[in-house]
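Aim 2 progress update. The chain analyzed this quarter is reproduced below.
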Amino acid sequence: MTDTTSLGAGAFATSPPTAGQGGRAVPAADTAGASATRTVRLAARPPFSFSASLAFIGAFPAMTGQQGTAQDTLTLALRENGTTLGARVTAVPGEPAVDCVLTAAGPLSDATAQAAADRLSFHLGLTDDLTDFYRLARLDRPFSRVVDRLHGYHQVKFPSPLELLCWAILCQRVPMPVARNMKQALVEAIGNRSTVDGEPRWAFPDAEQLATLDEPALQHLIGNQRKAGYLHRATRQWLDLDEAFLRTGPYDEVRDQLLALTGIGPWSATFLLIRGLGRTEHLTPDKEMIRAAQRVYGRTLDDTAFAALTSRYGSHQGYWGHYLRVGG
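Predicted structure tokens:
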């Protein structure tokens, strides 16, 4: 049995470790029968609805088969500091918070547990402040109905921006099931497998692992020469980027860095900014979003009308667009 500590505390409770592979990046790591377990409580800014997060994850096609959402519990695997971890996430009754049980096959350091906690909090958007966004929505009657349906939903991002970078390349100009098969081939080839609640979960490879695959190996796995070339170069370019800067640095500078990545154009850069990095300051509409807005507002919207709606939400316009797509 483990104690529970809160994110930001000086230490994590750990079950006694046995000999293992520590922090080395070793392919085919299966954390079934994990020798280290830590539980961390992650606070969320209210209002927060974990059930809304689970509903989104369960319906998100890019995550099909990768994460479990049964019995009001999120199960997944993640990769931090060269370690594959399993995670079991549940809501804390009566509190805007979740408890995360982390497991690993070998010793689980404080730094790795802290990195995993930060990754999960960011993935689930727990620290997002919805106050001003909801205030603006109350002044927008058609859209306020969307907020009523999604109340307390914090934007669930991709588990990591690197995973979204790869997904943005894989899903270009191919059907969704084909892109999912390509992604799963990459994931299983590296083999970051964890067993959580008796079910296998796969962590997306980290950049160092992907960098070990040359272009022919990538082409063999995904069956597409052009995408293999993009992935080969983009994942190596990612190693030179600072994720902390991408999350918080000046928007235009971050966007320029993303546009410099092989295979990433304006649409993919916006996708990465909002759904990979939580940068909601700007929004570039696409056809699906405009259709959702037309359903919500009950009228045809040209570019000028859509831009006028977008401008109401200022630095929250990316959140507005995401809510449109999810609840519109």
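The mean pLDDT is 90. Residues 30 and 193 are 5 Å apart (CA to CA). These observations will guide the mutagenesis experiments scheduled for the next reporting period.
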